[in-house]
Design goal:
Pfam families: DUF5606, DUF6852. This protein is of the alpha+beta class. It is built from 4 helices and 7 strands. It has 2 domains: about 45 residues; about 80 residues, Arc Repressor Mutant, subunit A, CATH 1.10.10.1650. α2 crosses α3.
Length: about 140
């Protein structure tokens, strides 16, 4: 699962794939509808590969959480981000049992499930990608 070029742009729904860099920002393509948008340098943009979730001991990268969902769901979709609070929190606690309940809000949990389901629908959560990445990382070491 490669999250290096997947973006979350503040103020815009869904996820975006980084296409090219320009002088004044970059061009990204929406993973939901395929529309291309120009994003200025002033926009608040987060790479999914840089996002982590607070746990009681340390921060857990989003990639590890997505991999846990893939393992639990056998590559299928996770619960919708529109499920009830109790369902989402219980499911998230199964995946990340030691998440920091004071610093991880329901809105954060909803984003994780929404983002995972977008990636899963696009086929970007497959186990083949994960295993080929770990092979590349091992070869690089």
């Amino acid at each position: 699962m490669n999250l290096e070029k997947i973006l979350a742009i503040s103020g815009k729904p869904g996820l975006f794939a980084l296409k090219m860099q320009t002088r004044s920002g970059f061009v990204a393509e929406s993973l939901t509808d395929g529309k291309k948008v120009t994003v200025g340098l002033r926009n608040n943009v987060s790479l999914l590969s840089e996002i982590s979730v607070y746990t009681d001991s340390k921060e857990k990268p989003l990639k590890e959480i997505f991999e846990a969902i893939v393992a639990k769901e056998n590559g299928g979709p996770a619960p919708s981000h529109k499920e009830s609070e109790s369902v989402l929190v219980a499911y998230f606690a199964e995946i990340v049992p030691d998440y920091d309940r004071e610093r991880v809000y329901l809105s954060d949990i909803k984003k994780v499930f929404n983002w995972y389901n977008i990636l899963q629908a696009k086929g970007l959560t497959s186990a083949e990608e994960t295993s080929s990445e770990s092979t590349e990382e091992t070869a690089a070491e």
